[in-house]
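Researcher: Structure prediction, please.
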Amino acid sequence: MNRDSDIMKAILLKLLFEADPAAGSPSGDDRLSFVTPAPWPDSLEPDDVLAQSHGADPNAVFDPGDHPVVYTHFEALVKRRLSQEIAQHPPLFPWEQGLQDYPDQLRSDADIASIWLNHLRTLDIPTDFPEEVLVDLFGQCQRVARHTRQLGRQLVEAVESFFPDQSQTLAYVAGVVAQPNTRSATQAAIESVDYTTASTQQQITLTMLAARSIFEALCLTVSPLMPSITRHWNTPSGPLSVTVARLNETLLEVRADLPEPGSMTLTGLTDILHRDRSTPGELLLQITHPHPQTTYTLEVNLGEAATPLRFQVVVEA
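Model: Predicted structure follows.
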């Protein structure tokens, strides 16, 4: 019976690890712990099946070239049993708690980020700026802003991945773009430069000018001279507004008006505050005794956007 056992084992391995196109692809992993051996019909015992294909002797040896009745019958029996078990108890991915529907097509990074990028076109960014570059630049600016407040350094770190081996040019251009009067002096010039045909230095300049505008849009600074500041961000669902107000020396308030369901999280040195809502409307966070000269990170999520909009909230003494 050793060869019979080997044949049965081979059939099972084939069924377990070779997908059946007719049954569809299960949404789960390779765990099949729920599968139990299929019971043989009451009217047909395993030895009887062997006996049918080999006469009265169930211990007959199969010829390698034969395709015995037991092979076909056992394969059909196990397939039917597995199909029933999978239909009743579909396997799950390790992170799934239950069955769920998935979209036919996954959203690309550009689709995910476009909820925020719609507003970027209203900033001082060249009109012909490539969309894919703007997507990457926006993500880089959000990452860099969390680690440094020095504008020149921010500009270099935000664009250096686009222009490898250009450290000297990056440092030089960043020193120019970081100057307070750069915008008025270069506004007319950037409109006449085509990014796709520009030289490397021109592209670095255009990219840093775009990065500077993004950094400014993502920074909310309050001080005794300017105790309140509001940013409006256009989205496909409507305008998002975020207001940071220093009500007094001991109370900082952050208020967001969401155009759709979402959440808001404010993170500081020791403070983490979070609010969310299932309908459009207002969210409010308050920090008592805010730390002066401290940068807080404010994350706003809308709907199913995988990438939050990250503001840097700066409290000046």
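Model: The longest helix spans residues 69-88.
Researcher: Thanks, that helps.
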